[in-house]
Design brief:
6-stranded parallel sheet, 7 helices
């Protein structure tokens, strides 16, 4: 089992970086862009995310047990990419994200149900140009467990916007992935130092199981 990255450089540790948010009272699971264009290694935007999909399903199962909200995100655009802004100039592979195409569909291996939320976004962050924050506030959510891809892109952007919006972002390293291993590792270190808690799968599942105990009236 992969362990969460540790901030062991004295430059970080001795200056107070990497403090813990911890889990709050009410959490939601955020599944970012685990869509066919990203999970198919043969796609221009894709990479091998089989392990990430499997780990995300583990978390989905735990969230179903505690009856907490689950949000799936996809990115999709008009055929002319006119709603992608200048971002389309940076990545030619965005042409695989046309609305209605297979590329924008949630990976069928994920345990997604009709009761789950689905939000379409246009930019890296799940908060940019969406009503995500308002939905979370209305549900009383204070903690986000963030999964999906890519760690250096949409995951990092979402985590930064989450903490900027007053939420506690938790990232499970087994459940996020990237096309670049160095980018993945550096982004996890950066997130853990400044923006969110990087918490390994065993710890995350243990903490989520405590929600179930608390809901049943048992000891925390």
């Amino acid at each position: 089992m992969q362990e969460a990255l540790q901030i062991d450089d004295p430059t970080f540790r001795d200056r107070g970086f990497g403090q813990r948010f911890g889990f709050g009272k009410h959490c939601a699971l955020v599944v970012v862009d685990l869509i066919q264009s990203f999970t198919d290694p043969n796609s221009p935007l894709g990479s091998d995310l089989d392990a990430v999909v499997a780990a995300t399903n583990q978390l989905i199962g735990q969230f179903r047990k505690i009856k907490a909200p689950i949000y799936f995100f996809t990115a999709s655009y008009r055929p002319d990419l006119g709603d992608a802004g200048v971002w389309q100039l940076k990545m030619g592979g965005m042409s695989t994200l046309v609305a209605g195409s297979d590329g924008v569909k949630i990976d069928a291996r994920l345990d997604r149900r009709e009761s789950d939320y689905l939000i379409v976004k246009k930019y890296a962050s799940c908060f940019a140009g969406t009503d995500f924050s308002a939905q979370l506030v209305s549900l009383g959510v204070d903690t986000l467990v963030v999964t999906g891809c890519t760690t250096s892109g949409c995951i990092r952007a979402t985590v930064v916007d989450a903490v900027s919006s007053g939420f506690r972002p938790i990232v499970v390293p087994e459940a996020v992935g990237d096309r670049s291993v160095p980018a993945h590792q550096q982004s996890l270190l950066d997130i853990d130092a400044k923006y969110g808690d990087v918490v390994d799968m065993d710890e995350a599942l243990a903490r989520l199981s405590r929600y179930a105990t608390e809901q049943s009236g048992g000891a925390a």
